[in-house]
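dumping the sequnces here before i forget
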Amino acid sequence: MKNLNRKTSIPSIIMQAIKIYPVIFVLIAFVVIFSSLYPQRFLTLLNLTAIIRQFVSLMLFAAGPSIVVVTGSLDLSYVGIWMLGGILVWLLQPFLGMYSILVIPILGLVTGFLIGIIHAKAKMPSFILTLSLLVIYSGLTATIAGGIPRTVKGYDFITADLIRGVPTPFLWAIPIIIAAIYIVKRTRMGIYLYSIGSNEEGAKLAGINVDRYKILAFTISGLFSGIGSVIIFQHHGGSVPVALNLNTVVYPLVAIVLGGTLLIGGSGGPHRTILGALTFTVLIRGLNISFLDPTMIQLIVGLLLIASIIASSRGVRGVTVT
Amino acid sequence: MKGNDKAVVKELFISGWLRNNISTIIPVIAVVVIIGIFQIINPVFLKYQGIITLVYAMSYFLIAACGLTFVILMGSFDFSVVSVLKLSSLLCVLYVDRIGLMVIPLALLVSVGFGFINGILFAKLKVPSFMATLGVSIVVEGIGLYLSKGFLHIVTNQTFKALTVTFIAGLPSIFYWAIGVCIICTLIALITPFGRRIYAIGGNPIGAVLSGINLDRYRIYVFMLSGFLAGLAGILHISQQGGGSIEMAADMSIPLFASVVAGGTALSGGVGGPHRTLLGVIIITWIQAGMLMLGYDRGIQMVVFGAIAIVMGIATIDRRRIKFVK
Amino acid sequence: MVMAMNDTIMEIRGVSKTFDRVVHALDNVSISISKNEILGVVGENGAGKSTLMKILVGVYSPDSGEWYYKGERIPFPKNPKEAAKRGISIVYQEKGVIPSLKVYQFLFLGNEDKYVKLSKLNIDKLKKHAREILEEFHVKCNIENFMYELPLSTQKMVEIARAILSVRLEHEVDDVTSVIILDEPTAPLTIEERKDLFNELLHMKKNASFIFVSHIIPEVMEFTDRIHVLRDGKMIAHYDLSKERVTEEGLFKAIVGKESVEIISKPEITEALSEDVVLKVKNLTKKGSYYDISFELCKGECIGIFGPTGSGKSEIVNTIAGLLNFDEGALIVKGKEVKPNERPHVRLAKGIGYFSGETGKELFLNWSIAKNISIVNIRKVLRKFIPVFNFSAEKKMAERIVKQLSIKTPSVNAECYALSGGSKQKVSVGKWFERSPVILMLEDPTIGIDVGARNDIYDSTIEMKNRGIAMILISDDPKEYSLLCDKILFIKHGRIQKVINNEKFKQEMFE
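..and the predicted 3d for all of it:
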């Protein structure tokens, strides 16, 4: 039986933290590497602000899916919600005025619900389902926008500076992140989600309505992605892209995996994704500042993704992987 | 009780037969309907020039789809097909002027190499196939970006081009490549032990193990095959097109996947085959051509393909077998 | 037949259940359970115990039957929660544990209602009560441990605590009328742990009743008050241990059905054909499963490994087949030693086949009969000069097998999904029959199928034996051992207790 007495000296706290969250080690390593290689560019307030901004963008998309991944499924629809939501705001603004921004969270909610139902009842694997939906949404966005990136005005207040030096999107992101962590750690639903991810059959035997909670998880994820999209949307000056950039889809996924959340479910969650997102952001910023060829960044991201999956898949035993 | 048993068995037998064949009938009906609609909309289309355009669109697509079919038959997923295809095209474009037709074995080797990596990640390192291939696809795209630096490249080597645009019996040679590959793949799938084992792994991995199939080895082989075919598709595509630039992977991945499931190959594995994918590819490329003709932009096309992917994906899943889906 | 006592808590009558329209899992079963008693439900695998229990806790609904609670008729529960409200819950034999949950989370899983306010879980209260429960049931672990960290026996104790808790939390009336079903609870436990468990149960008997599902006769005899015996879906015997004298052999015969032993006719079994040793097992050990297993298997010989669930018999056979590793000892096949972590396809290439009666595992159900048979006989159905399938040869081979085993099917191209359980089993047997491996492992070959199909399978198995195929049999049916095996190894707690020959085995079991 594990001895759960904790020592309280600072080095041992750090060591214990690294044991539980190995990614901290990677984070520290990155910070150290980039700080020593490019001290003038890395250790500046400008860079720190950029890191926070990028971290926020990442977390807002990764928060919802972090909840879904606990059940062992994946939700890749967030970029679609962002794109389609944005263009719908542009479309509806002449009619609904300021309220049209609400379309985005509503779209997220409905999307998540739809995905949940199809996944739970029709038994379609979540990866390909959400990916296909993403493609459908981006297609709809391009069609509605007529192929041109559109801009929506009038929502500056969302990202206007509130506290000096602190990017407002960060302040908005805090409640979302807290809510996500709260759901998985402090509610009954959270325990049920972990159960489904850890042993779905056992969860069913224990009387848990697995379908219901899967649908709930996807719905919440869609809602969070929707809310997150509102902030990101304005973060980008209210413009809506019409081309699907695979990076925006993959980056949050990297953050989740890097954080140590297992893709088969049953462990991890938004609290781990925070660390993963932070670490990944530091890496990206560091690479951007460096003198490395920009095209190498994509390569490194891919290798990082593979490396972190291999590292976390090591703990998996006896599971039939498809 | 005995008589009842017999009646029951017969009923189950018929419903099983029906189920298997509905997934064949639907694609065939779809193809007929589509051809019919085309004729109505634009009778001129099915004349010579239209057919050539269609053939060019279909051929390389079919080859890549056959590779993906094998992976899906096995119950896995290969997201890297499109990226490998494009890298293969890129390698040809970049080096054909320097090393001539030797680009072909080069591109194929690289493609098979990435397929091998996919296989190792999946079979030996136990990474779920969609993640492994997603990761590899990002790496491949990265390499592609780095090599091409975003520039447009043109092929000038005539021998290379001749591979695909030599006209035989009125159709470009790429057509024969595609049909030939499809026939060979179908034969592999249906009448060779190798193919039978792939169906086995997709149908029941545990049963496959107990029947003496080396799961790891076959999984690696299949991903290598998928890589090979993706590479081949890339070579032929660039040979025919003559030049181009890099697009985003997501653009083509879903239509590719849609063509496999639209043909009746089930996501759950163990059912379908390259012969089915032929139908699926016809459906998808014709729909694409049709939409272009009718003036629908790329956006609507993506919506349609995404919808087909979901609908056919759901329709083909064998819910009897799947207990837990993630 | 059912003893209705005055403090009967609940009674079910006339419960029947069929699956797949062809298999009768339960046929007109009635049981009752009273306050403060431990009721044993025994029977072979496939007798219907598991189905009956699942009906009691609402996982399945019966095709017919009535439920009486304290004399009043009520509907069957539709889900485990409803069952818990009536005071019934179950501890499953396997897959009941959620590994990544912490103990305090698992203890209350599904029953957190009283600890939830507006979606928020009162974790402190949860943890406090968790500690109290663990103390009450003397479970030695920390509430913060993950379930996967605990040894199996502790996991089992936590599961039992959880079952009792779920009833306490859901049940509106008092404790005394709780019924906890324990499905083969002692399989993963050591001797001491079993003793501890039973002591706890006797203790807890004051507050709850237990249904003890098992086929370990000595345990059932010692710790239950009454015993119901299930065979082939029917309740065929009932014993009240306070009123009658029951012997282990008597119970055993009831489970097994002595009468049917004589009915099965069989072709003449020839004695083990030769001194040709095809398999030598030397001091085979796998920590935690079996220790120091040694025996020799000759051509045409069939050895049975006989023992209760958890004795290690299944692990031994799975090891030989290549599904498990072994830690120490040696396995020598046809004179050559094999390595511990070879996978099944390598073992098969060396001549070891493995057949499990759980046909979902082994068959390709959406394939035709012909394909299922040919997948292990590929070499026989290829064309001469090109390595491709010869479909007519494949068909002929399948037709031969169908005839040999009397498989009921309109055609060899019929999907296996459409076949009855017995027919599926026959297809499985048939493919090995054709393959004729050097050694064949048989695990529960006739589980859950009707007598007719069983006899057909026995006939084919004996013919395989006469052809010289060496076999190792594992089953819960002593009749099978007496019918097929030349020698029987008795195994308990992972060690061989004794080895006896067929004659002596028959004497011990059936007289």
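Chain C has two domains: 8-257, 262-506.
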